[in-house]
Amino acid sequence: MSGSGEATQTTQEYIAHHLTFLSSGDGFWSINIDSMVISVLLGAGMLWLFSRVAKNASSDVPGKLQCFVEMIVEFVDGTVKDVFSGKSALIAPLAITIFGWVFLMNLMDLIPVDFLPHAAGLIGIHYLRVVPSADVNITLSMALGVFVLILYYSFKIKGPIGFAKELTLQPFNHWAFIPINLILEGVTLVSKPVSLGLRLFGNMYAGELIFILIAGLLPWWSQWMLSVPWAIFHILIITLQAFIFMVLTIVYLSQASEEH
To answer: What is the pTM for the complete model shown?
Structure first.
């Protein structure tokens, strides 16, 4: 039986149900509505929180929320200064946005497995996955946005000719190796967004699956013995994955901004 206590649902059905998206459409053109809505709401909530703190900021005796936000901003700003070698007014705000947004999406994994799906079921929504970063479409979409910025900075700093030379004359600086260089550099360039998106997806999907397995395989009265220690450890994973996504984005944009 499932951990939710539904006598008519087997463990396999329970796990499959929790791994099913609320989607619209079929095949490639299907849209995971739950991932889209939750990620947009989290992004809007983060923007509202930061704007509220900025409007109410005080230099006298700052409140706890202001201190917390300032600590995050200073931490990210220091990381950007250490990693990004160029000069750009976009990188620091982008890094703060990525870190905060990805962290909030990851944080949804700590909500009890059945809480939001059960609440959604009461209003007629039968499927709901609440961790947007456990959806490969979300993570690869964010990575695709980073890839567009990589191309933008590469063309802006190096120019079309310089960027073409980087792809065709490295690592072997000879015209005879142009095809080999193009393959090697092309694979390296494409692998950046792919690895960026899949790394976040893989870690968060694994964490979500473990919570579902605990809820689906153990009786409700014993689940806390595994779910609580895993949740405490998962807090580190949640923060670390947001930090890694942010740092790799800065590193890739720094590499794209370097003149050769």
So the answer is: 0.90
